[in-house]
Amino acid sequence: MESARGAQQDETFSPSEREVGVGPWTGPWPEGDLWDPELLREGDRRNVVDRYRYWRHEAIVADLDTRRHGFHVAIENWQHDFNIGTVVRTANAFLAAEVHIIGRRRWNRRGAMVTDRYQHVRHHPSVEEFTAWAHEERLPVLGVDLFPESVPLETYTLPRECVMVFGQEGPGLSEEMRQAAEATLSIAQFGSTRSINAGTAAGIAMHAWILQHAQVG
Ligand SMILES: C[S@@+](CC[C@H](N)C(=O)[O-])C[C@H]1O[C@@H](n2cnc3c(N)ncnc32)[C@H](O)[C@@H]1O
What we know:
The chain is α/β, with parallel strands linked by helices. It folds into two domains: 2-65, no CATH class; 71-213, 3-Layer(aba) Sandwich (Alpha/beta knot). The protein has helices at 37-42, 57-65, 84-93, 127-136, 175-180, 198-213, and strands at 71-77, 99-103, 121-124, 141-144, 151-152, 162-166, 183-186. The radius of gyration is 19 Å and the shape is elongated. It binds S-adenosylmethionine. Residues 71-207 form the tRNA/rRNA methyltransferase SpoU type domain.
């Protein structure tokens, strides 16, 4: 399991722990700017899909930038929310345009599994600054939380370009964000718990966007 690496920050998995990736390039080296000589020489053990094996980091980000989806995700971070790494990792997997951290700048990168290196992450010190940015970008702000007025995500038509905002464990979405949002959306629940984990909620919401807008296959 990748999570067994814990605080791994250099993006590589050592072969002794898990044989991930590929060894040194065999045969004549490919030519061009895409390729990283060190990876060609030493092998590529990074947490990247096969398509990007041996590519330079900057080349991968540049390629992702040509294909990013129209949705952004944002999460409030007033108390160092531990879900942010998960949100960043999922945003990377579903190719979000950007991830926005609102509140404290620092966040625990552990759960991101170094995916933040390939994801644009922008910080906004306050809800006001975040919403000003969203208005300037003409992006509707969609709060995701279980409020009485929330519309079920399952029946909501998500705009192709939007920013979905998630709250923190405990307090949930701030009142300021609730008021600023164009709409708030809830994920239907059926059991006894009051809510699901914010990282899980973010994954479900991002996938709802994928189901409605992404080209699959
Ligand atoms: C664990 S919840 C916060 C606790 C919640 N306010 C309560 O009263 O139990 C943290 C965040 O996860 C997201 N969330 C969790 N469950 C959700 C659901 N069923 N629908 C929409 N968002 C949800 C929201 O963004 C929320 O702000």
